[in-house]
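About this split. The held-out portion is used to measure sequence recovery: a designer receives only the C-alpha cells and must propose an amino acid at every position. Recovery is the fraction of positions where the proposal matches the reference. Here is one held-out target exactly as it appears in the evaluation file.
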C-alpha cells in the first residue's frame, strides 16, 4: 500500500477521508497524493477554447492552489510524504485517470451519501468511482480519529470470480492484522441450506492462507440489509465487498449492492473491483 489517492473538494467529508488516509499512510509508510478536480462552471468551461473569461478560470485555479497549500500544512499530515495535483476535468473521470497514471494502491474518499431521486438519477462521484475504480476504494462517512480494521467483515457469494479481488482484500487485512468475518447473506430470493452455504465458503477458503477468519451465514430480507445488520451485530470496524462496475441500463435496473452500501452504511466501506 505505497500510494494512496485522496480526492478533495475541501468539504468536511473530504477532510474525514484525508485524516483516515493519514493514519493509514503513517502505519504503512505510504505516500499520499491529494487531488482536486477543478470542475469549472459550465460557461467558463465552454469559454476555455474561445479565450473569454480566462481571469475567472485563473481565479478558480488560484483559489484551489491556496486551499491545497493550507491543507498541506495541517498537523495530521506532518512528517508524511504528501504531493498535490490540480486537474481540469470532471471529478470521477479525473480521479480514475490520475489513479491509473500514478499506480494508486488505495483510493480514500469521503461521502455524505445520497438518497431518493438524487441517488437514482444522479448518484455521487464517490459512487461512480466505486463502480469503475481498478484500485480498492475506501469510503469514509464520519470523522474517525482512530481508524482501525481489526474487526473486518467481508460479505460475498464466494463464487470463483471473487478470488482475484479477494487476494487484494487479504493484503489489506494483513496490513491491519484484521480478524476477518466472512459472511454469506441468505435471502428469500436466493436461499441456500446451511450445509450448502458452509461448503461453498469452506471450499472457497481452501485456496487462501489466512488463519484469522471465521465463516458466518446470516438470514435477512435482502443482501444490503443483511450486510448492514450483520456488521452491526459484530460491531464491525469495516465492511468489505466486491463490485462488478455495471453500466447503463444494466446498472439502472439491477443496481449495485456495493454502491448502495457506500450510500447507506455509517461504517467505513471498502470495495474491490471484480
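Reference sequence for scoring:
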Amino acid at each position: 500500500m505505497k500510494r494512496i489517492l485522496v480526492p478533495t473538494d475541501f468539504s468536511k467529508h473530504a477532510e474525514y477521508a484525508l485524516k483516515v488516509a493519514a493514519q493509514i499512510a503513517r502505519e504503512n509508510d505510504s505516500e499520499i497524493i491529494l487531488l482536486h478536480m477543478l470542475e469549472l462552471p459550465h460557461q467558463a468551461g465552454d469559454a476555455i477554447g474561445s479565450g473569454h473569461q480566462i481571469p475567472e478560470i485563473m481565479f478558480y485555479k488560484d483559489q484551489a492552489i491556496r486551499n491545497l497549500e493550507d491543507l498541506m500544512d495541517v498537523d495530521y499530515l506532518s512528517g508524511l510524504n504528501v504531493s498535490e495535483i490540480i486537474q481540469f476535468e470532471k471529478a470521477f473521470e479525473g480521479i480514475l485517470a490520475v489513479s491509473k497514471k500514478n499506480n494508486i494502491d488505495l483510493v480514500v474518499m469521503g461521502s455524505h451519501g445520497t438518497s431518493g431521486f438524487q441517488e437514482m438519477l444522479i448518484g455521487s462521484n464517490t459512487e461512480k468511482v466505486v463502480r469503475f475504480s481498478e484500485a480498492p476504494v475506501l469510503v469514509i462517512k464520519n470523522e474517525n480519529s482512530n481508524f482501525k480494521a481489526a474487526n473486518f467483515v467481508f460479505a460475498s457469494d464466494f463464487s470463483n470470480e471473487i478470488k482475484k479481488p479477494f487476494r487484494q482484500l487479504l493484503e489489506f487485512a494483513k496490513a491491519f492484522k484484521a480478524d476477518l468475518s466472512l459472511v454469506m447473506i441468505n435471502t428469500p430470493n436466493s436461499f441456500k441450506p446451511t450445509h450448502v452455504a458452509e461448503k461453498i465458503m469452506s471450499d472457497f477458503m481452501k485456496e487462501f492462507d489466512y488463519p484469522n477468519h471465521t465463516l458466518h451465514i446470516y438470514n435477512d430480507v435482502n443482501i444490503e440489509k443483511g450486510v448492514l445488520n450483520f456488521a452491526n451485530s459484530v460491531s464491525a470496524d469495516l465492511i468489505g465487498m466486491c463490485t462488478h462496475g455495471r453500466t447503463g441500463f444494466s446498472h439502472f435496473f439491477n443496481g449495485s449492492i456495493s454502491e448502495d452500501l457506500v450510500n447507506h452504511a455509517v461504517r467505513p466501506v471498502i470495495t474491490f473491483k471484480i
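Annotator remark: The radius of gyration is 20 Å.
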